[in-house]
Amino acid sequence: MMNDWLKIVATLKEKIQLKLNEPYLMQHIDSPMINEDRLLYLLLPFSKGQIQSPKVEMNVTTAMLIQVALDTHEKVINSNESTQKQQLTVLAGDYFSGLYYQLLANGKDIQLIRYLAKAIKEVNEHKIAVYQYESHSIEEIIESIRKVEASIIQKFYQYFHFETYSLLVTELLYLKRLFNERTLLLEKQPSQMFNAIHQQLFQSVQMDSGIPESNLPILMDYCNQQINNVKATISKLMKEDCPENELFIESVRELLKVE
To answer: Which stretch is the leader sequence (predicted)?
Structure first.
């Protein structure tokens, strides 16, 4: 059973990768990442039989392409690369955006277009709130980060009337983001999330030099506390109601093992 889902995810990932493979761009920018966990989350509303449907495959592919396009644009915000590479990365994000618009137009699913357009708007609004320090509290920053990570899947679930696991998947995506942000802190790399949280904690405007090293332990403690809290929430949700998908269950178990 789990092997079947592994094959489904791997096959669809390969198909999406082929759509993203624009030869000139791939020579000059990093290859776009297709997150297998996100892909699995998008497949959860469907049975194995349904996934064989070209329309379902197209809808999942479209949502994944949107996420890749958003993630690609994100790289420019956090990049120290050359101007030329940044420009090409923006171009790649726009190219990937064109792919999902083309798929949606071909599918003529106007209602899904509306749902996903709302998700894109939501993601961009919350990114701006974090990056421009528009949030008025740490709670608002965290809520914005959660929206940035999960809005595409949340709206996708709403469209398919599959909201049952929306909170669980949101928590999983937030946990993965926390792990990434913690790595940035450990490596003393720029972290948009913790830049914003630092501004709230210390009521100070961020300097170009980044977060003072003396404040890093406080932010690290806060990050670890968030990780522990989210893990506890995920464990509780899994006990209450868990998707009957062995690959999903195993992926959650592995994620919860990360210290």
So the answer is: none
